[in-house]
Batch of 2 targets.
Target 1
Amino acid sequence: MKVTLKSTVGRSAVRVVPVFSDGGGAKKASGLDPALAAIVRKADSTGIFSGKKGEVLPQVAPDSAVEKTLLLMGLGPRKKLDGEVLRTVFGNLGRRLARLSGKKASLSLEQGAAAVCIAKLGAAQAARCMLEGCRLGAYDYQAQKGGRKPRKPASSLALECGDSDASLLKLLRSGLKLADACVDGVNLARELANTPGNYLYPASLASKARSMARSSGLKCKVLGERDLQREKMGGILGVAQGSNRAPRLIQLEYTPRGKAEKTLVIVGKAVTFDSGGISIKPAGGMQDMKFDMAGGAAAIGAMQALARLKPKLRVVAIVPSAENLLGGSAYRPGDVLTSASGKTIEVINTDAEGRLLLADALHYSRRFKPDAVVDMATLTGACVIALGTHASGLMSNDKALARQLLKVSADCGERIWELPLFDEYYKMVESKVADVRNSSGRDAGASTAGAFLGHFIKGVPWAHLDIAGTAWRQAPLGYQPRGATGAGVRLMVELALSMGA
Ligand code: BES
Ligand code: MN
Ligand code: ZN
């Protein structure tokens, strides 16, 4: 799906007409071309279309003065309009256009509700949200669907805007450029997280990261098993023991031109398949555990976007990757692992594997002298119980960093919600036989996982995002497709841009 800016107004296969829900037919039609206005008034008076958010009225050959096909698209009330409403409505549009395959759609930014969106949100933000919604909504994982059907040609949406106002065009273009980079990053993360475990494992993830780095101009370094042994990364190595697929630690680095004032490290959990290990998971739903590398995928997707957007700070991504299986040399409950930090970890439950990878990766991140470290991980079922699929859990040892993340979250529309890291939670993961233990039972499961991580990154401003609920959807919703959502990518891009604008 392509979304472009067009300075001429012409006929296309489909004309998209956004409409607010407030007022009667006259108000709904205000600011539209006479022919379109008449159609919107008629749709309103017959009661078949009210402009409610998400409502769509397709029309075939309504009037010879307009296109053969119209899509009236409800935006809801003017008062409730924000970026997320636009993303959601355009997400549904994107999904619909992708299904039509190969269709050219147009939408005038100078008329009716679209013009109001630009006036209310600003041209750059409105264009950004329209593009993000449309392209993110159009995504569908198809990689293993070969053979029977030929690949569908992509549809496109042209945003029409006269060329008289140069500063307006500049704003629209900057919004679209930012959005395109973000969407490509999100869709890369989705593609990686949707890929089955037999195609995507630590070594193949590393080679995909490496080829992305090569084409994006990023530095890439991959630690193999030997390197991990040299770094004494007992957490990653412990988890990987049960699989024939060797672990990796992927490092991507973006350095700006000129002097970098700050360094941000993004850490992403990449368990390419999580069976639970000896503490095996129930069979129902286990197939989805291929997405247990969504945190790592989001880190890689964000790096691709940042390579294009070029913020003025250094950004390093650290992606520890292993497969959690239960082969003959698998780690067991009761084992004690020694992490890269020297801290020993009692394994209570082999299914609490993500924090073992992250313990080593967080410790490793210290060598970059970061101003902030943010990790993203599909870490706990407890976080899904607490917040469902509608917000990622945020935990942090630094008030300012947490505040900054909440701010950029509101800007980019990726919802996060803070959960506490009380001293008591740090205590709860202490062990009788080692320094810490990897599980303390069901109580406050998201926070005790966070506190476990906190033991390995003391003294560094750090935040943890538990994306277990947000990284995957069972059914499409707005601009999120079924399957991997790419959660975390837009948030990290927004954070990096806010730190190095
Ligand atoms: N990858 C899972 C967490 C998860 C659950 C992600 C559901 C997405 C959806 C993680 O490795 C895990 O198994 N966590 C355990 C921890 C427990 C054993 C302390 C959990 O949440 O049950
Ligand atoms: Mn697990
Ligand atoms: Zn896991």
Note: The mean pLDDT is 97.
Target 2
Amino acid sequence: MSAPRELLLDLQKVSAGYGALKVLHDVSLHVGKAEVVGLLGANGAGKSTLVRTISGHLRVRSGTIRHGGVDLTRLAPHRIPQHGVAVVLEARNLFGDMTVAENLGLALRNGRQRVPRFSIKDVLNLFPVLTEKYGTPAKLLSGGQQQMVAIARALLLQPDVLVLDEPSTGLAPKIIKDIVEVLQQLRSEGMSMLLIEQNVSMAAQLTDRAYVLSLGRIVYEVAEGTWKNTLESGALADAYLGGGMKSVEPRPPVKESRQ
Ligand code: ATP
């Protein structure tokens, strides 16, 4: 058996929600060093809510979020990357009027003060199309290019753990392929990642192990080395269908914040 991995991101019994709606119920999960972990779930399962609690945009009602032993639970969003966790939100949150260069430059200023693992040159090598778009305002880029800028910006924060909320959503197959290749490269270089996905085959391709979230609870875990058996057994489909298929209500603006 291989030695246990060093623990990086560690969520213990995290609960969160919006007003009277409790969405996450005692969610515990972890990501180890050089490990890629998936978080799967149907629409409305609470995946993005979990990401917003990790990024600091949504208050944790109970439980803890720790990284490398440091308690991040009550930190404001701008403090999270300084502790080594970079989050790519589904909305990407780029500054539309700023160029690609300016969006990336901001990350260099806001990231961790340490010897950088990624330079601008590195991220442009990962996403060559951004070189020709370097002086273009982000709002004029395609959705796929914006996703690339969002991932590149997160890498320039010099994270130990990269959290990606459904990076393939709404993108053309060719762009998804490019992004999958970059994530595979990062994985081979030992980047720790929490990959939120609805696409099971993409998660199986990219992750070492995975959790399934249904109605705000972890209902199933795919252990390391068991992806093939899990897919063949149909257990994942059962976990998905066992309560995960819930209609999604219209979303009013986020009310709770710890900014
Ligand atoms: P999807 O894959 O469709 O993005 P998800 O798994 O990311 O789904 P969430 O977006 O976290 O799910 O939503 C979980 C629940 O929280 C849903 O019932 C949703 O309606 C509710 N919800 C999400 N955002 C808000 C909000 N800003 N205010 C109120 N309720 C919300």
Note: Residues 7-91+157-246 form a domain with the Rossmann fold fold (CATH 3.40.50.300).
